[in-house]
Amino acid sequence: MGCFAFLKVMMFVFNGIIFLAGIGILGVGIWVKVDSGSILSFLGKIENVPPEISQVLNVGYLLIAIGALLVIIGFLGCCGAVRENKCMLLLFFFIVLLVFIAEVAGAIVILAFKPLAENLFAKVGKAASENIKSSYGRNVDITGLWNSTMDTLKCCGFNNFTDFENSPYYNGSNSMYPPQCCPNTSNPCNQTVAQKPMITGCFPKIKSLIDGNTVVIIAVALGIAALELCAMAVSMTLYCRIKSTMA
């Protein structure tokens, strides 16, 4: 019975972590959908953006679905272990197995379609640059969105300050760039000032943040996969022990 009790405790701990992770992901998904100033909401308002980006813009719904699923999984696992309910444990096992298979398939798809993703981002960059040149300084909403994004990320334009050339703001201010492109000076933000030093564009800034945290992202993904495998092993062992005990 000591081993059986240990399995129940481990099952409860594993699923407690899964349950809390689900709540966290669910909260992030809701925040992404509610926050109108988020980068995803911003991309959705850019004209001529590739239609494929709409799938990326729905990441909030994906996070909500994943978070809700993890909450359900954690609940089933905890209740199944505490109440020694074989039906809940078996259902938990199959749900986690399906999630694990989906995660492996998703990782393979991401690796296989990486060149297509790079092409998609190139199209987004072209649309974003055209959006700046046509609307920044003329459209109040677009100007405010760009200013908010640049203030938050400490960046300038989508690629760099040259995105603002020939924009309504640039043409109406004697060839000046937005002050976000020259943050460390009180001088007018002309080309000479913007180049020394040149502030990174918003897309390279986001890309560098992702590249710089690749190891952390991979470690978290592997940790989640290991946790799922352990949870499946413990749940099936507990299921078999309950079955043998009741026999």
Automatic annotation (TrEMBL):
<feature type="transmembrane region" description="Helical">
    <location>
        <begin position="12"/>
        <end position="32"/>
    </location>
</feature>
<feature type="transmembrane region" description="Helical">
    <location>
        <begin position="59"/>
        <end position="82"/>
    </location>
</feature>
<dbReference type="InterPro" id="IPR008952">
    <property type="entry name" value="Tetraspanin_EC2_sf"/>
</dbReference>
<keyword id="KW-0325">Glycoprotein</keyword>
<feature type="transmembrane region" description="Helical">
    <location>
        <begin position="89"/>
        <end position="113"/>
    </location>
</feature>
<comment type="subunit">
    <text>Interacts with SLC19A2. Interacts with NTRK1/TRKA.</text>
</comment>
<protein>
    <recommendedName>
        <fullName>Tetraspanin</fullName>
    </recommendedName>
</protein>
<dbReference type="InterPro" id="IPR000301">
    <property type="entry name" value="Tetraspanin_animals"/>
</dbReference>
<dbReference type="Pfam" id="PF00335">
    <property type="entry name" value="Tetraspanin"/>
</dbReference>
<dbReference type="GO" id="GO:0005765">
    <property type="term" value="C:lysosomal membrane"/>
</dbReference>
<keyword id="KW-0472">Membrane</keyword>
<feature type="transmembrane region" description="Helical">
    <location>
        <begin position="215"/>
        <end position="240"/>
    </location>
</feature>
<comment type="function">
    <text>Structural component of specialized membrane microdomains known as tetraspanin-enriched microdomains (TERMs), which act as platforms for receptor clustering and signaling. Participates thereby in diverse biological functions such as cell signal transduction, adhesion, migration and protein trafficking. Regulates neuronal differentiation in response to NGF by facilitating NGF-mediated activation of NTRK1/TRKA receptor tyrosine kinase and subsequent downstream signaling pathways. Plays a role in the inhibition of TNFalpha-induced apoptosis.</text>
</comment>
<keyword id="KW-0812">Transmembrane</keyword>
<dbReference type="InterPro" id="IPR018499">
    <property type="entry name" value="Tetraspanin/Peripherin"/>
</dbReference>
<comment type="similarity">
    <text>Belongs to the tetraspanin (TM4SF) family.</text>
</comment>
<keyword id="KW-1133">Transmembrane helix</keyword>
<keyword id="KW-0458">Lysosome</keyword>
<dbReference type="InterPro" id="IPR018503">
    <property type="entry name" value="Tetraspanin_CS"/>
</dbReference>
<dbReference type="GO" id="GO:0005886">
    <property type="term" value="C:plasma membrane"/>
</dbReference>
